[in-house]
């Protein structure tokens, strides 16, 4: 199959991702991808990064998330490369998309990226935005339920400094994840547009937590 037109490549990729993630966990399904894709396009109106690479990076960033493949981080890039190669996409574009997938994830927040590009900055911000605000809260509890985690346990305090492996293997209550990841994202955004959007969603999460603790303690 030969797809040289960027719009056609993107359209074919959308169809592929929809089919591949048809039965995915609710926080990492096609609708997550679609939101990240829309966020990325919105941010890129200001950043002016390569449109095709941003689009493909956003659409394929979770095509095989390591959390659902026994922690194997090589599956996603390999699936993306195979698919894009079948479309005869330019090798430079394929390699760039692979690197975006390899470097986009949070993984405890203390891992230095070994690749940098404006396209990665845009897609990473777009993905992180979907972990914030109302959607971020919904996804966090959805994933916690999927993994059978407690909502909250006051006796289990959040671990703010975790290695990559500790983060990947954590079984802490869902509320802890706010402190271990979600509330940290605001200050780790890459682009001005991403930072502005993150600030608004961060405030929403802080208000949610205040209400949560008040209800937990029977104060409201």
From TrEMBL:
Pfam families: HD (PF01966). Transmembrane segments: none annotated. Residues 29-132 form the HD domain. It comes from the Bacteria. Gene3D superfamilies: 1.20.58.1910, HD-domain/PDEase-like. This is HD domain-containing protein. It comes from Antarcticibacterium flavum.
């Amino acid at each position: 199959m030969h797809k040289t037109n960027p719009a056609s490549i993107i359209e074919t990729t959308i169809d592929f991702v929809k089919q591949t993630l048809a039965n995915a966990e609710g926080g990492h399904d096609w609708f997550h991808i679609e939101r990240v894709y829309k966020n990325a396009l919105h941010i890129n109106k200001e950043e002016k990064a390569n449109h095709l690479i941003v689009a493909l990076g956003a659409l394929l960033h979770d095509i095989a998330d390591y959390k659902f493949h026994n922690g194997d981080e090589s599956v996603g890039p390999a699936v993306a490369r195979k698919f894009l190669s079948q479309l005869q996409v330019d090798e430079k574009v394929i390699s760039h998309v692979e690197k975006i997938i390899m470097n986009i994830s949070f993984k405890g927040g203390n891992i230095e990226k070994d690749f940098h590009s404006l396209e990665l900055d845009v897609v990473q911000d777009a993905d992180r935005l979907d972990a914030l605000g109302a959607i971020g809260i919904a996804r966090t509890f959805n994933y916690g339920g999927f993994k059978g985690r407690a909502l909250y346990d006051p006796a289990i305090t959040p671990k703010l400094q975790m290695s990559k492996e500790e983060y990947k293997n954590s079984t802490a209550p869902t509320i802890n994840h706010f402190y271990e990841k979600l509330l940290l994202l605001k200050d780790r955004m890459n682009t001005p547009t991403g930072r502005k959007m993150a600030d608004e969603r961060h405030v929403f999460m802080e208000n949610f937590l205040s209400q949560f603790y008040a209800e937990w303690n029977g104060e409201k």
